[in-house]
Write a structure and sequence with these properties.
The protein is an alpha/beta fold and about 200 residues long. The protein is built from eight helices and five strands.
Length: about 200
């Protein structure tokens, strides 16, 4: 492992994948049984996901094979002086925005969003829309009075069973589409969530 890291310009995650070595095992062997290894990994994850609190970091650690409870992660999180970064409201810039390249095949990227409307009796309902960005084909329109993360995941799974899983899903970072259930589903199936701030509809094209 040390030879790979010393001779190849790659990170620990990539090196462990090539060697089929569990990252938690490498950190354990390399840094010892004390908190040094877990502290290093908590800092790395907190830097990569600044909007994640200690609870979501603990979920990510367990996915990687760490046997660690919430209390321990919370203690390290506090002792390291880590805090969850809250999103800031920013003024929309007037400079020209660079539109991401258009996908070259189906299931390369989906765009997902919520729309809302009101029935004649005054009840509000929501609809989840999923569009394949390459073909502009509507993959899904799921409507209900409430659409929590579990329902969103169930709807996406039905589409994936029919059409296959996408490589990436473009999601509004300011909406309810950033739930733990969606994050876990995307991780399990190797789907990248392309999160962006509200007020940027150009990313959905």
């Amino acid at each position: 492992m040390r030879e790979v890291l010393g001779h190849c310009p790659i990170g620990v995650r990539r090196a462990c994948g090539l060697l089929r070595l569990n990252r938690a095992s490498w950190y354990y062997r390399h840094h010892g049984r004390e908190d040094t290894a877990i502290r290093m990994r908590v800092r790395e994850l907190a830097q990569a996901r600044p909007r994640f609190g200690y609870l979501r970091l603990q979920v990510m650690l367990r996915r990687e094979g760490w046997v660690v409870n919430r209390k321990r992660v919370h203690r390290i999180y506090r002792e390291e002086g880590l805090t969850m970064r809250l999103p800031r409201r920013r003024k929309r810039s007037s400079h020209l925005r660079v539109v991401p390249p258009h996908p070259s095949e189906m299931n390369e990227r989906w765009s997902m969003d919520f729309v809302a409307d009101t029935l004649l009796d005054g009840q509000r309902f929501r609809a989840l829309t999923v569009v394949d960005t390459y073909s502009r084909h509507s993959q899904l329109i799921e409507s209900d009075f409430t659409l929590p993360g579990t329902k969103v995941v169930a709807a996406l799974e039905r589409v994936a069973n029919r059409s296959g899983y996408p490589q990436m899903i473009t999601v509004d970072n300011g909406s309810d589409l950033t739930s733990k259930a969606l994050d876990a589903w995307a991780y399990e199936h190797g789907v990248k969530l392309d999160l962006f701030g509200p007020g940027n509809p150009w990313r959905m094209r």
